[in-house]
Amino acid sequence: MYTQYNMNQAFLPLELSDYLAPNHIVFQVNNFVEQLDEHILDQFYKREGRPAYHPLILLKALLFAYIEKTFSGRTIEKMMQENIPMKWLVADTEISYRTINRFRSSELCASILENLFVEFKLFLVQQELISDNVVFIDGTKIEADANKYSFVWKRATDKFYASLKAKEMAYYRNEILPTVEKEIIKDE
């Protein structure tokens, strides 16, 4: 015997957030982007032409997509159509991949995204969702013959913590940004 199913809509999806776990990362992305100073986004405002999508929606979508390791504009557009957390985050707005790529290719957006990448980590630390005393970019070699010289000591981690932030920025520029640019070219 099979369970009954019906392809007709049996209920109304009143609130998309009801389908999400209360601790879903999408809520932190929303809180982080909403607390940004909107004056930095004033340069996106155009008085003529069709009303534009709000830059906060696009920033939320990009930040969440990057967290989900999604860099293609077409895939981000598909997430807006099919992914419940993304639909909630962008208020059920569907934005074309061309608009997404045009937005993130702009010089202003590129500088904002680079700073958001590092600031979002600091935001998560302030919210006590992650601990910054265990955030490292792994470069450890473990040898078969482990001894006291093959481990990373706390003094060494404290000494190099200042350079970690610079490495995070470099990681964004060298790893994430080229992937994004490659996906933008592929989308065209």
Tags for this entry?
188 residues, mainly alpha, single chain
Low-confidence stretches: none
Global shape? globular
- What's the N-to-C terminus distance? 50 Å
**Percentage of residues in strands:** under 5%
- Tally of alpha and pi helices: 7
In which range does the helix fraction lie? Answer: 40-55%
Overall radius of gyration: 21 Å
Structure description:
This protein has helices at residues 25-34, 55-67, 73-82, 84-89, 97-105, 107-126, 154-187. It is mostly helical. It has a domain at 21-130 and 178-187. The longest helix is centred in the C-terminal third of the chain and has 34 residues, at 154-187. The model has no long low-confidence stretch (mean pLDDT 82). Residues 15-105 form the Transposase InsH N-terminal domain. InterPro entries: Transposase_InsH_N.
List the helices and strands and how they pair.
Elements: H1 25-34, H2 55-67, H3 73-82, H4 84-89, H5 97-105, H6 107-126, H7 154-187
Helix pairs in contact: 1-2, 3-5, 6-7
Protein name: Transposase
Pfam family, one: DUF772
Organism: Aerococcus urinaeequi
Summary of the model, kept short:
With 188 residues, the chain is an all-alpha fold. It contains 7 helices and no strands.
